[in-house]
Amino acid sequence: MRRQLARRARHIACAAALALGAAFLAPAPAGAAAAADPYDVLVFSKTAGFRHDSIPAGITAIQELGAADGFDVTATEDAAAFTPSNLAGYEAVVFLSTTGDVLDTAQQDALSAYVDGGGGFVGVHAAADTEYDWPTYEHLVGAWFKSHPAIQEAKVVTEDHAHPATSHLDDEWTRTDELYNYRTNPRADVHVLQTLDESSYTGGEMGGDHPITWCHPQQEGRSFYTGLGHTIESYSDPDFRQLLLGGIQYAAGTVAADCGSGTTAPGDESVEAESYTSSSGVQSAAHAGAGGGATLGYIDNGDWTGYASVDTAGATSFTAKVSSAGAGGTIEVHSGSATGPLLGSVDVAPTGGWETFTEVTGALTGAGSGPLFLRFTGGAGSLFDIDSFTLAKEQDTKAAGSSNVHLFYYPWYGTPETNGSWRHWEQGGHTPPDDIGADLYPKLGPYDSGDAAGAVEQHMKWIEQSGAGVIVYSWWGQGGYEDELAPVVLDAAARHGIKVAWHIEPYGDRTAASVVDDIAYLNATYGDSPAYYRDAEHGNRPAFYIFESLKIQDWSALDAVSDSAIVLAQTTDTTKVAHFGGIYTYDGIAGATAPGWKQAGEYAEANNLVWAPSVAPGYIDDRAVPGNTTPTLGREDGASYDLEWSNALDPAIGGSPSWVSVTSFNEWHEGSPIEPASSTPPAGHGYQSYEGAYGKTGAAAETAYLDRTAYWADRFEQQRAEARSAD
């Protein structure tokens, strides 16, 4: 360890010197600055899923780069290498097209501590298709793999010409590779080095802003990732090898680079026009009267500039400080590339001199989704100079989930590490972690509902992906386990714009009067949370679903809260809903035939009640309740879920719902979750999976029910909008 700390200190000092020198020296040619001191790199290529035939070529290429650049390479597929003492001997660890779950918990902890403590991580290609059960890894690698089209040629756009991984590349690089789509866009959390021009190939699904190579600090360490490198041929391509070398040098800390994370939102902040990150034709021009003493100058017809850190999303107008003793011309504002979507343009007339500045402004009517590019058109000769510019940006317009789609959410799980013992996962006489009381196995494994940074945070991300805006929190009484965890879930939900309604369960001695007390308690205890759900269409009242409401005959006590709360009965028997403000069904099997739905919906509409039928993707509880004879409902690769949603949204069957409730987000015992289930559950227990759902397999199948919920939520909102227009 002493040897490792000394070497790390030396490399940090070297990097600091390089950073200081960069202020006085012109950039060196790519590859010119080999590491001054030898260092060590661990290449890890274990696979638990698809195995790339390019791995041997990748190992050889890194070994050859090491021989030339002065670092030693250890290649292994043995996860036992991931111990604190062993990792301390390396400046960087490379995950070379790893796939699946390749590290156990102790090994994950060792890698996390290594990078956080100053080590380097390099992910290549399928490194993004790895460790889906470990939320920390998503942040380390930057984004998880979603899908890819066939191998094909595409244009790779360089956003950063200063980083050692990309400084050797032109503004566009045409190459043939397998081009990954990712589950999330990492731009907000990383420094993007390269993007894919989705107009240059087929199958891109990132909406025009498609990062493919990026880097970011990881506490005291560094992370670099490229989605390129699927093919064997990649590793003999000099440009790709230099990309790989620059990434390793950055991660190892031997070459300084700016990987400050995130994209600067336009807002109303002024940007110096000469601070471009890519360009064609232009140069910086000295002007005493300009901000910073310089402008973007030498602008001729057809020239352009790009600004990797300026995001065009939501931009509504463009204002520039300009001067012109030339012909004048036009500034075109583009998104994603110099030939990307045109958002708008601004004309620049001659101002009478290069030192005479004025402001020009124009509206942006196109929809931006990527870094800013400016393209310049006009007559012959120099057109104009630009000192600075500003993008005005509208309020954040990120689409919120539907407040009319409610997911039943269960916070009742526990693990020995957090709770002191297993809770719920052992139901049915099982022995977690591999053997649990469920017929499906969670992608996260058997998690703890109190794990705020892990399971709960990931749940909120997945709920966002589902398009639902409300969770219905399973609550078992004041002071109970779920009540104690409510602040954790409310805080996480608030961060993600998700609202929380309440599912009041049949706790011991529950009465109508106690439910009224519970409503008062929940309002007083949690009502100030920004995540506390209140329905604007129904008097801004909170919602309380009452499970097994038929067990209590007299609900007249609810009259005390009928004006301030929406309380829903679980039934379609409309003779049993007196004193309630709404009706729901919960039953995940009944949705396939929708018995009584139309009549219940019509009754609700006639009596100004909320109607919230429940849909489910399937139902099976054989492992949680051994010997149970309850009917089951197979998922049929998604057909059952589609059928139930179709029934709910068909007025002739579902009775025009106010809300649609989904059974469930994570009721694992009953086999009804849309939460991702592992596509590779522990063997020997007979677990099912989502394989084949909507034609998807592997990682894509794991999130298939989230994506399908988003589809149906959108359909529901469209239907509601059409109904309002018809009224």
Give a short synopsis of this structure:
With 727 residues, this protein is of the alpha/beta class.
Secondary structure: elements and pairs:
Elements: H1 2-21, E1 39-44, H2 55-69, E2 71-76, H3 84-87, E3 92-96, H4 105-116, E4 120-124, H5 135-141, E5 145-147, E6 152-158, E7 172-177, E8 181-182, E9 191-196, E10 211-218, E11 221-226, H6 238-252, E12 270-272, E13 278-280, E14 283-286, E15 294-297, E16 304-311, E17 315-324, E18 329-335, E19 342-348, E20 353-363, E21 371-378, E22 385-393, E23 402-409, H7 416-419, H8 452-466, E24 468-475, H9 481-495, E25 499-504, H10 512-526, E26 543-546, E27 566-570, E28 582-584, H11 597-606, E29 610-612, E30 614-615, H12 639-649, H13 651-654, E31 660-662, H14 698-702, H15 704-726
Parallel strand pairs: 1-2, 1-3, 3-4, 4-11, 23-24, 23-31, 24-25, 25-26, 26-27, 27-28, 28-29, 30-31
Antiparallel strand pairs: 5-8, 6-7, 6-9, 9-10, 10-11, 12-22, 13-16, 14-15, 16-21, 17-20, 17-22, 18-19, 18-21
